Amino acid sequence: MAEKKPINPILKMALELGPIAAFFIAYVKLREQVFTIGGTEYDGFVLATAGFIPLILLTTGILWRLTGHISKMQIATAVLVVVFGGLTVWLNDDRFFKMKPTIIYVLFAGVLGVGLLRGQSYLQFVMEEVVPMQRAGWMILTRRLTFFFIGLAVLNEVIWRTMSTDMWVNFKTFGLTIAVFGFFMAQGRVFGKYAIEEEKDGGD
């Protein structure tokens, strides 16, 4: 297994959030325009999506190059971006890309749910090195995160099916990021109660 290499956290955040920010900027600049390519008309959303696909692959590749590691979550996200983003561009239909977050969150909830049914926390396997915590804490956090992902999937479906594309883009760019950040901030009591303190050498 390749050893993980340290990376500047600011650079890591820029690589992870950069494609989302670029998509938002491109959409805002192109949303009122229609482009004819090969005899087919494409709106700004579809073109922004077309640019997002290679960008997410590029930044994921850079992360792998710099750290020697890519999480399964990052791989799944990149694959779904290629599949649903590709369908959006190919069929000139923005519904596929709007469904992508739903599929991602249902997939994550399903994986975590299978682990819970087996009495395991797959989240612990991914985050244990970063956040040392007792098994009971991981099980609580995993249950909450599973329902949280289900909630996000439902919310994404409601927003893209009932509201404007502008509203969905704002939700995807800002709403989802704030929601995930807020969720983990709200778990402070769990992290505090079940944290594993590092053992100190008493020195005989």
UniProtKB/TrEMBL annotation:
Subcellular location(s) of the protein: Cell inner membrane
Keyword Membrane annotated: yes
Membrane-crossing residue ranges in chain numbering: 12-30, 45-66, 73-91, 103-125, 145-163, 169-186
InterPro entries: YciB (IPR006008)
Domain of life per record: Bacteria
GO cellular component, one term: plasma membrane
Keywords: Cell inner membrane, Cell membrane, Membrane, Transmembrane, Transmembrane helix
Membrane topology: Multi-pass membrane protein
UniProt entry tagged with the keyword RNA-binding: no
UniProt xrefs under PANTHER family: INNER MEMBRANE-SPANNING PROTEIN YCIB, INTRACELLULAR SEPTATION PROTEIN A-RELATED
Primary role: Plays a role in cell envelope biogenesis, maintenance of cell envelope integrity and membrane homeostasis.
Family statement drawn from the similarity comment of this UniProt entry: Belongs to the YciB family.
Name recorded for this polypeptide: Inner membrane-spanning protein YciB
Origin species: Rhodovulum euryhalinum
